[in-house]
Design a protein that fits this description.
This protein is an alpha+beta fold. It contains 20 helices and 26 strands. Strand 2 (153-156), helix 10 and strand 3 (177-180) form a beta-alpha-beta unit. Helix 9 (139-146) packs parallel to helix 10 (160-173). The relative contact order is 0.07. The model has no long low-confidence stretch (mean pLDDT 88).
Length: 550
Amino acid sequence: MDSYNVTVLKKRDTSKAAVLLQRTFKDNTLRSNYSAAYVIAKTRGNIPKDFDAFLEEYPVRPQVSPVLMNTLGNKWEVLHSLVSNCKCEDYAAYLLFESFCTHPREYSETPAGLSRLSARLLEISPDNRLADLCAGQSSFIRECRVLGYENDCTESEINAEHRVIAMMRADILGGKITVTSEDSLKLEGEYDKIFCHSPMGVKWKFFDPYCNHSASADWLFAGKCIELMADNGKAVCVFMNSTLWNQSDSKWREKFVSSGYIETIVALPTNLYSETSVSSSLVVFSKSNNSVNMIDATEIFTPVRRRNTLSDENVEEILGLLGKKCGNSRTVGYDEIAGNNYDLYPKSYTEEVKVEKDSVPFSELITRVTRGAQIKAGDLDSHFSESETDTRLLMLSDMNKGVISNDLTYLKGLDKRYDKYCATDGALVMTKNGFPVKTAIVSLEESQRYLVNGNLYIIEIDESKTDPFYLKAYLDSQQGQAQLRSILVGTAILNLPIEALKGLMIPMCSMTEQKRISEKYIKKQQEIIKLQEQLEKAEKELTEFFLVSE
């Protein structure tokens, strides 16, 4: 069978073919639709008299024929009707470009624009051997064909349903495309260019002896890509953004950086997937690197309805940032990355923040930083006390205008294991998520303490080096908030990583000057509180003009 021109097929309107297929197959719709579209496309509309005749005349992969038999075996005659009402090219386009998703929470396939960007980053040449790990429904190789790459390719996919769709598509795409059920982590061989989009939205962790604890599967698949990659080869992997900065994967990041494997990282726009708004990045791997080109492409996209897409123009704009030194592209040496706790999120390096000359790392001014207690609401209820105790619960909602409420819940009977989650007098508490970052200073009697909720950080300050309110004043300032914003990660929920927080640069001055700034800050804060009380009183009075007097 002569191959279709995939670039031309992509431009075809498949709406008529989709309607005809949906009307024809009302049960088991998606499987039947794809099976019918495959047979029509494969035969170019010249449908044999029955299923057996089709198998005799057209070679079909062993895993595909049972699916065709189950969906079309007793409905073969409807294929003739479908062909008479729509062109075979429309069915071929439907098969190749309509997403197959049988579950509403299933991540069906890699977005087309993301696949095309990945293929261009790989710099594929005609003689390259390609591999696609966790291939899904062959969307990456399909987009390679759209770009004109006709290379031989090996695809691995363990999901049987997706693998059959990939096999059907491979037949229509033409060329030598091997689709295997081999676990991607067990694939063998050597390849020049590799793409991997490992499972997203799956709570899959593995115990890694190198890290000596659980680590994200993204890095495990990246390690497999390195194993399969030729000496002059290149790989592109899709990563969840959290794996580029979280503490649990820092050892993996250190390993890849120190081995010289990371070449480029592109932070992608959010909302590229139809099923989730999760944010991701592309990581380009090769060998013998000593720096990383960090590219922030989070604002480069084309909105289409409720989703963002990467158009051909967007892809070209992103590629144009490679190697450039500008606002959203910067080449960062491995030494700088190591000094930043191997944080690999591009925004951590492309967003410039002015640092004062006499500044010191936040870590030098504190004695401890930890996240508050993560206690289930049901467990917490049993510790509530009606009478006063020496322990009270501090939650995010108890912080307003930089001040902690006086009306906190009293607690009783706390286990010793919660002691480390308690803040004492003079401690700084800071919000863990969201922007702007909120802070407050704990002010307590000697015997009192606050059990701090898990949405807050507890930071104990070395008061021999800095005044707590001076530190708070800087963190609340425009400069301080700009620094904090630069280290926040995530898109749907912004998160403040502890290690990045420790590296925050704090401008220093004499203790006398610090005390002067602290006093001014406290005075201004008290003015705000007083004005807030007056405003609340006036607002209440506005609602009482028509109260009936007794």
